[in-house]
Design brief:
disordered N terminus; rod-shaped; six-stranded antiparallel beta sheet; Phosphatase 2c, domain 1; about 425 residues
């Protein structure tokens, strides 16, 4: 008995419609010439470009040259049957998905499952009905249309990701260079002034940060040192620190606001309160700048041990005595660049040989611990006791920072820049 429906039945429809628009090229595979002729005639009337193959091997050769949008393949064929052809078709590396319909007289569930497992998308039972064929092709067209839309969107996403990656690589390269420039603002991490010493720590939470530490001296009898924390993070804050580095340069005294040139050409150190007022005036005079910064700035006479300091909204400096006692000093004050005409007050400390003064940013005291709480001032005192309060210089600061990282919450990590300035007075 023939498996081919009467010819008029398969040719009932003639005009192509928009619901088949996703399918243009159809491959018909059947060892029966008559069956191919009937299918091809209707497909061409519906507006498709149709290619014929009389075997699975011939169909594979066609697909390797140019993959079709839709395949209509008989299951039972000599040589490579439809199931084997479907498996081979699915293994082909192609850019676009091809819809595969198996033509078969098989209707058992296990046979249908076998066909789906081989990669077939749909089945048509012989004899083929024109309306059913048209409906199956329409369903396939919708699937292909969605697949191609998804592919186009994925391609756009990949192209956008490539562009973003290129932009990120450029920004990352610039930030690495910016980090080197920012590091050059702190060329010395430790420096001896006679028997005394100033040590610096600067650990940005990203490539670049908004903290700045430094020191300078007009002679061997007086030195100035400071700790600054610019509001915010990232590039804007880093640019602010670069500007501050110029205002407090340890190399170019004529540009340093902390220095005052004398008639004989030498330089003396300005009072801390005067330096704070000058910085406040400079930053408020610049329009468009919304950032401000906190600062602890000190000047010390190494002969007498008398230290003068201004605290402008910065965390309270910590005075460490040789016997292990710790005392927080200062009264807070107003950040610089926030309000005009602020009267900055300075205070004095009498330092004795063996005393140390620690200036630090709130990256220390506001660090999140494993329990979710902040370290705070007492926690900093405890941390110093645990790390060995008698260590000195840059080693003391590095060990203190390392100890902080060991108790920080991995969930939050380093949320803010961490910096510190340590002055050790030894007479």
């Amino acid at each position: 008995m023939s498996n081919i429906a009467p010819e008029p039945d398969i040719q009932a429809e003639s005009t192509p419609t928009s619901d088949l628009g996703a399918i243009r090229r159809v491959l018909v595979v059947d060892d029966s010439r008559l069956q191919r002729r009937i299918l091809v005639a209707s497909l061409k009337k519906w507006g498709f470009e149709v290619i014929e193959a009389d075997s699975g091997e011939a169909a594979m050769a066609i697909c390797e040259a140019s993959s079709p949008d839709l395949v209509l393949s008989d299951w039972m064929m000599p040589g490579m049957n439809g199931l084997e052809f479907c498996q081979a078709f699915r293994k082909m590396p192609v850019d676009c998905y091809g819809y595969f319909i198996l033509l078969t007289s098989k209707s058992e569930k296990n046979e249908v499952a076998e066909g789906l497992g081989a990669g077939a998308d749909d089945f048509l039972t012989k004899p083929v009905n024109a309306d059913e064929l048209r409906a199956r092709i329409s369903a396939g067209a919708r699937i292909l249309d969605m697949q191609r839309q998804l592919s186009d969107k994925n391609r756009m996403i990949l192209e956008t990701l490539d562009q973003l990656q290129a932009a990120y690589d450029t920004i990352d390269k610039d930030l690495i260079q910016a980090k080197k420039i920012q590091e050059s603002l702190v060329p010395e991490r430790s420096r001896n002034f006679g028997k005394s010493c100033v040590s610096l720590l600067l650990k940005p939470c990203g490539h670049i940060g908004g903290d700045l530490v430094g020191m300078f001296s007009s002679d061997q009898d007086q030195i100035a040192f400071y700790s600054i924390d610019v509001s915010g993070h990232g590039i804007t804050s880093a640019m602010m620190t670069a500007r501050l580095g110029g205002y407090l340069s340890s190399f170019y005294f004529d540009q340093n606001l902390g220095m005052q040139r004398q008639l004989n050409g030498t330089y003396t150190l300005r009072e801390p309160a005067e330096v704070a007022a000058m910085l406040n005036e400079r930053f408020l005079a610049d329009t468009g700048i919304e950032e401000y910064f906190t600062m602890a700035y000190a000047v010390v006479d190494l002969k007498t041990g008398l230290l003068k300091m201004v605290q402008a909204g910065h965390p309270h400096p910590m005075l460490l005595r040789p016997n292990g006692e710790a005392e927080f000093v200062g009264e807070g004050g107003v950040p610089i660049g926030l309000l005009p005409d602020v009267p900055y007050e300075q205070f004095e400390l009498q330092m004795d040989p063996g005393d140390r003064l620690l200036l630090y940013s709130d990256g220390f005291t506001e660090a999140r611990l494993i329990d979710g709480e902040m370290l705070e001032e007492q926690g900093l005192v405890d941390l110093i006791d645990k790390t060995g309060s008698r260590q000195s210089g840059h080693e003391f600061l590095e060990d203190l920072y390392w100890a902080l990282t060991q108790i920080m919450s991995p969930q939050y990590g380093l949320e803010d820049d961490v910096s510190a300035t340590l002055f050790e007075y030894n007479g």
